[in-house]
Amino acid sequence: MIMDTFRIVVVCTILMPGCILTCQVRENEELTKDWWQTAQFYQIYPRSFMDSNGDGIGDLNGITSKLEYLNEIGVTAAWLSPIFKSPMFDFGYDISSFYDIQDEYGTIDDFKKLIAKANRLGLKIILDFVPNHASTESKWFKKSVKREKNYEDFFVWHDGYENPNGGNRLPPSNWLQAFRGSAWEWNAERKQFYLHQYTVQQADLNYRNPLVVEEMKRVLRFWLEIGVAGFRIDAVPMLFEALPDINGRYLDEPPSGITNDPENSDYLKHLYTQDQPETLDMVYQWRTVMDDFQRIHGGDTRVLLIETYSPASFTMKIYGNRTTKGAHLPFNFNLITMLNKGFSATDLSRSISSWWDNMPPGQTANWVIGNHDKRRASSRYGEDLIDTMNMLVMMLPGASITYQGEELGMPDGIISWEDSVDPAACNSNKEIFEEFTRDPARTPFQWSDAQNAGFSTAAKTWLPIAAGYETINVEAEKNTPTSHLNIYKALVRERKNRKLLQFGDLKFKAINEKVFLLERSFTTGEKLILIANVGNQPSIINVDEFDSTFRGNVKTLILNLKSTKTEGTVLPARNLQLSAYEALVIERA
């Protein structure tokens, strides 16, 4: 098992009166963290990472050819968005076989070669597991339509209701899918409705059926045996729906008041289709699968990462409880959901504290600024703040998650209605598709200024290459000392080499609406402070008012591209001048 270790002993004294507990820490006793607790996770969207065969679509051999790059930028584990067999209505999130690789991505042998090379480089590979639904082209669904033995209730079926006005039967409830419209679809062969909380081609599995539960555990074990280091679990809040009432009716969900568009999923409060208590138990069962596999086969911890945009009251329970282990990391999306262009230092402080202050004792935090479902961080925050946000993620305690291209400051691509392929966009219309589309964050990765940004030799790529790739690419930024990429690499180096960034205490504060300070401190007396001006005007601060030990002078360690200072410069702690959007990591001079 890979552990980061440091030896300390804590000597505590209770001072009377008032029972104040003070602790002094010395370098004698061992403190440990498992590999995933301080890991740099890196999300790869396989379709857009690297094309090895010139068909315009990224593939497994393309990823394998670029593993040295991941090693170079300090990645601990790469998480691959779905690579399973799929008709690609939702680009791999509609899985027709959970045991096979999609042809355009490669073969099982290609995947095994990827795993082998990753192991040689000291990298871990994590798969995206999509348990909520299966493709309507899967054998499971086809058997269920025919009511074959053991598959009759593999999916969520319901008769619906007779239409008093004649014509087609009415759906069982008013539930809405994520991609607009009813979450129920009539199947003429079986003569029932099936539930789909995503596209009509993604039928919801029935987790109240123990055969489904066991089959999905079998899927997890299959890929663990091939050598993956764990799973990122997709769309977990939707696993279970509330049971029908005593009359067999699913209850309608009430309006949310968020939007007046009755086709939009946000039109309803998802009281009966998300965050059901049974979902937590399912996560706990999957954690047992991970732990049992490690216990039997040995090796490092196999991790469970959970996607959820649920309220903190539900999300924090995913970690588990006093008696039962849950996910290693429920993803923390606060830096996405609570921040956008023009955010203040107070907003930033609040988004951190809303996770940090609610996290159960003894658990590990994680910090995310982007993924394949959201506009790219550089576009959401503004390019002026992308370095600042990468600094923040690397300075905070716990695990970091980087979506491919964030280390380069890659912005969204501009995708027209005609070029749109994302079902979230295509299920709308030309007038409103930009509100829903996820295509701009999925444009091909930018390796160089060559044809198609070095991603592919094809005449046409599956999505257009984003503008600006001639200067925003790996090759150009690698050779430019002051670039987004080299700032990112410097941050990762500090994170790996400094014990205070792995084990140290955290302190943070919005000094005013423009300036945010974050400090990591360790028992050795070592301290680092991130100073970030998130405003578009210069500012002056006194660092010693945040931490009185920073008297006199400070020294710059890492600077963002908005800074005109140089690394290693000695500056006064008082009346420290910051330009607009400037961010610095400093230490005592």
What does this 3D model show about the protein?
By secondary structure, this protein is of the alpha/beta class. It folds into 3 domains: 1-35, no CATH class; 36-132 and 213-242 and 273-488, Alpha-Beta Barrel (TIM Barrel), CATH 3.20.20; 133-204 and 243-272, Oligo-1,6-glucosidase, domain 2 (Alpha-Beta Complex). 23% of the residues lie in helices and 21% in strands. The protein contains 15 helices and 25 strands. Mean pLDDT is 94; it is low at 5-29.
In short:
The protein has 589 residues and is α/β, with parallel strands linked by helices.
State the separation between the terminal residues, measured CA to CA.
38 Å
Helix-residue proportion: 10-25%
Tell me the strand order in the biggest sheet: 15-14-13-7-4-3-17-16
Please tally the helical runs, counting DSSP H or I stretches of 4 or more residues: 15
CATH superfamily of the largest domain: Glycosidases
Shape: globular
CATH class of the largest domain equals: Alpha Beta
Parts with pLDDT < 50 across at least 5 consecutive residues: 5-29
Overall number of structural domains: 3
Q: What would the average pLDDT be, to the nearest integer?
A: 94
List keywords for this structure.
single chain, 589 residues, alpha/beta, TIM Barrel, Oligo-1,6-glucosidase, domain 2, 15 helices, 23% helix
